[in-house]
Amino acid sequence: MKYTITIDPNGExxxxxxxxxxxxxxxxxxxxxxxxTPQLIGYIDTAFRILEEDEVCCFIVEDNKVFALxxxxxxxxxxxxxxxxxxxGSNFIKINQSAIANLKKIGKFDSxxxxxxxxxxxxxxxxxxxxxxxxxxxxxxxxx
Amino acid sequence: MKRTYGKIFLRRGLMFGGFGPIIMGLVxxxxxNQYADFAPTGSAVFLGILSTYLLAFVxxxxxxxxxIKEWSTIKSLLYHFLTLYSSYTVCYLVNAWLExxxxxxxxxxxxxxxxxxxxxxxxxxxxxxxxxxxNKKLQENGFPAGEP
Lengths: 144, 148
Prior knowledge:
The complex is a heterodimer of chains A (144) and B (148).
Chain A: H1 24-36, E1 40-44, E2 47-51, E3 56-62, E4 65-70, E5 74-77, H2 81-87, E6 92-96, E7 99-102, E8 106-111, E9 117-121, E10 126-129, H3 131-141
Antiparallel strand pairs in A: 1-2, 1-5, 3-4, 3-7, 4-5, 6-7, 8-9, 9-10
Chain B: H1 5-16, H2 19-34, H3 42-61, H4 73-94, H5 102-140
């Protein structure tokens, strides 16, 4: 594979890859770029794009994979949930062991018959606040 | 987005199952202090430990019922109640803590139902109040709430 490096102190830093197919080398380069540039890269199959924090309703873990749910899409991330937690801003808060919520994207809080608090996001997704995280959420909202 | 509710049930059960025998041990300790002739047999103690472990296991696990998105509120509540009621009844009958008589079981059922409803009401309304306050704070903090 041919490659070119252009050093330009005034230019915008960018990495472009042109390839016929996604190879192991490209995946390694992706991982390397992701690790060195803290960005939320969301994947749908082989396509990927950089996600803006504001468009994400929540991050969830399912089958040991981390997903970012937006209003209409579901992107897989190649990060662990704790890495996402460290990466996102103060509008985000962990609400249970496998979910981080964007406070700006919460539609409402509701109570369940079992005595837990349900979070209904604006995209319709539902999560539950664990007892372990309820205090932190109350503090964040200024309730205590 | 199918959740593994069975795994959650199992995990919670394993986490809290041990509290059953601990509580039984405390009750036995109190009975031992109160009654001089209190002397359960080894098999009765073993049965007690086993059944109270299973009881606590189920009690911890059933909390997952209210998170099953496919179930309606009424269905979740009904299954939660029936699972707890049946596990308590079986545990008490197996250990002979409850006599196997219609009148006794009827009184137990009435008492269990009343206590269940009172506890449920207290928890439900306190959580409802908290969620209401959280919705208010969400808006006050500039995170406008809205229906999906």
